[in-house]
Amino acid sequence: MQKQYGLNASRITVLRNAIGPAFANLFPDAAALAAAKSADPVLAYTSTPFRGLDVLLAVFDELHRRDPRLRLRVYSSMKVYGQDESSDPYARLYQQSRSASGVEYVGSIPQPQLAESLKIRPGSVLSQHLCRDKLHRGDGGPGGGNAGGDQ
């Protein structure tokens, strides 16, 4: 990009992806993280429902059938937008999560609580980037969100 746009290298700074303060320093070191990991694979969906929860639920049944040890915890709702479940257009996805084998629906929770929950049940974390292609098609729903936790 520097060459393409003729930018001065001394004026370029690369910023890494940031994490919320609640997620910083959950483990003192890599060894502690490795020791805390679950023996069984656990996925966590930690975003708003319109960012691919429907796609994940559609494929999870097959994944769970292939490996019955696989678990999915869904931390998602429109509560981050002040919408309760009774008027939430994605309520059918929460009900699908509640009734699917291997899936636990948790809903949106405050980020400090989310961080602790993920710390207790670490594993592979699957978030909003699951369905980037869905979002690029323009059917991703309203913008914004805060990774499944209320601020």
- Give the helix proportion (percent range): 25-40%
List the strand order in the largest sheet.
3-2-1-5
Total discrete domains: 1
**Using only CA atoms, what is the Rg?**
18 Å
How do the helices and strands follow one another from N- to C-terminus? HHEHEHEEHEHE
The tally of helices reads 6
Shape: extended
Notable features of this structure?
single chain; 151 residues; alpha/beta; 4-stranded parallel sheet; two-stranded parallel sheet; 6 strands; extended; disordered C terminus
What does this structure look like?
With 151 residues, this protein is of the alpha/beta class. The protein has one domain. 32% of the residues lie in helices and 12% in strands. The chain has six helices and six strands, in the order ααβαβαββαβαβ. The protein has helices at 2-5, 30-36, 53-66, 91-99, 111-120, 132-136; strands at residues 42-45, 71-74, 103-105, 109-110, 124-126, 149-150. The protein has a four-stranded parallel β-sheet. A two-stranded parallel sheet has the order 4-6. Strand 2 (71-74), helix 4 (91-99) and strand 3 (103-105) form a beta-alpha-beta unit. The longest helix has 14 residues, at 53-66. Mean pLDDT is 81; it is low at 126-151.
Briefly, what is this?
The chain has helices at 2-5, 30-36, 53-66, 91-99, 111-120, 132-136; strands at 42-45, 71-74, 103-105, 109-110, 124-126, 149-150. It is an alpha/beta fold.
